[in-house]
Write a structure and sequence with these properties.
single chain, about 80 residues, mainly alpha, 2 helices
Length: about 80
Amino acid sequence: MQTLALQLTTTLVDDAIALVKGLGRAILSLAMAPIERIARACDVAGVLEQRRADRRAPHPAAASGGRCKSRNCRWSPFRGLSELT
C-alpha cells in the first residue's frame, strides 16, 4: 500500500514534469514561429504539407525503437526544420 505522502509526491512530480514540458513546447513554438511563417510563404508547391502528412503516417520501422538521425530525433530542437531539406 502506498502512503498518502508518497501519492502526493508522485503526483506533484508528474505535474511539474508536465508543466515544464508544456512551457518548453510553448517557448519553442514562439521561437520557431518566424521561421515557420517564412517556410510556409516560400512553399509554393505544397511540399511542406505533403511531407508533414507523410511524417504523420504510421511507420512500422519507427516503432522498433532504432536510433534516430540527429535532425529527426524526438529531442532535437531542429526536428521541425527537417522537412525543409
